[in-house]
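Sample A.
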Amino acid sequence: ESETVWILDHDEEIVLAYDAATGKERFRIENEDHEPDRISVLDHRGAAVCQNNAILIHRNWESGVPKSSISEMIRGAGPHVLTQAELDALNEVPRLAEIRRFDRQGRRIPLWPNKKDDDLDHNPVEWNALHDQPALLPDNALLEAALDGALYIVEPDLAIVVRFDRDGRRTDLVRPVQKEISTITDFAVEPGGSVIVAFEHRKKINRETWMHIGRIHFDGRFELLAGPHSKMKTSLGTSALRVSVDAAGRIHLAGS
């Protein structure tokens, strides 16, 4: 079966999936049709498409006690003036920021092999405490999937790169030796496993922050590939860039 092209429309809150070979729409999920175990772009933080056409979504999901259960607890307390806490409980559904995995039909499947999502650690985690098979990521994490099925996450300000294999084991964590990166706006994984980053350079030109492209190796090396401060002195503009790398290792850039 051919690959899936995913389109996540944040403005209309619609998820679209197309057959990559024919362009035929496979399905769409609109906000009003949202089901708890189907993909959604509400409160979306990031996404990564995996090699088997599954997709990882990092967003705020409804969690905790359902609103109907909260109402039952309030009624069970008998007639009384609602407290502010009870009003807040009715007006706000508890949410949890975590990553979930969905199949090519948009149905939820286990995040990591041989383990139920409910059995994963759902406690908040910091960058220096990332463990195997995480369900939650640090709030500012960027994520991407590699061709071999590994999950990469990047800290955009410190340029920390963490890699998890297909089973969710943390295999690498690196903070490259460099003085160029101010903020990473996007990243992609090369076929060999190195990371290509689009970033704002620390050194401004005429008080403007300019976009650059670099490569992070897992031995800690950093290469400046393109941008006005590189050897090529390429102008990539001042607006945030999106970056991708194809199976042949070619780097593609797009304005965001």
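Sample B, a different protein:
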Amino acid sequence: GFIQSGGQKVSIPPDMHFAAIFCFLCFFLRESKLSMLTGIFFVLLVSVSAFLTLHKVSLGAIGFSFVSLLIYRLRNFSIKNVAGVLFLVLIFLFIVINLGSNLLNEFSVEINDTGDGFVGGSANQRILESLLIFDEMAKSSYLTQFLGKGFGSHYFNPGVIEHYPDYVHQGHSTPFILWLRNGVLGVSLFAFIAIYSFRSLFSKNPERLIFAAPLFYCCLASLVDLYIYWGFFMGFGTGLLLAQAAVDKRLRKTIG
């Protein structure tokens, strides 16, 4: 995609972010024995692939994979395990720093000179969308705030975002879009998944971490990116995590 676009940004669906973290953790946490050379090659492959998409959220997915792996190694501490993860992190940082300043600039977010926004329209656009949705819902009835306006709902844009129409259906922040379409009820269900997957990050069971990390990262990234159309993987990932938690609970009862 990077080559075909001539070095421009390449849109990556959230399914790929979920799959990247899932595969990364499976690669390092499953029982199979891997050589250091294989591990380095895998890190090189996923890091360069994520970097060439020129999307912060894609690079963040790989960074979060390292964080999740480090959390598990620290919970199951041994000098060898932690040193191995830190070595892989250094390789990742080396790749990021040495791929060139032009590429790094694509990932930067800077505050403008007046201090009331960001350099570049993307960050400003997301903030303005959220404020417009908040204003739309604040003017609605309590019942509408709780249940939302439905999937076909729009919010009013009084020329604040110039290239948008007067009534906008889409937005980037998933929690705000959920509030608009599904109300507080929808946001609460989303928050439950985010909190539950976050708590599961600190499990000593690697199987549970493998399911929890990609789910939590996608929830985290959805604060600034529209992930509302990744319903299959969100449902599939939540089901896997809850099923693994049920298995863990049954095993504890059996052993106990």
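Observation for Sample B: Residues 174-200 form the longest helix (27 residues).
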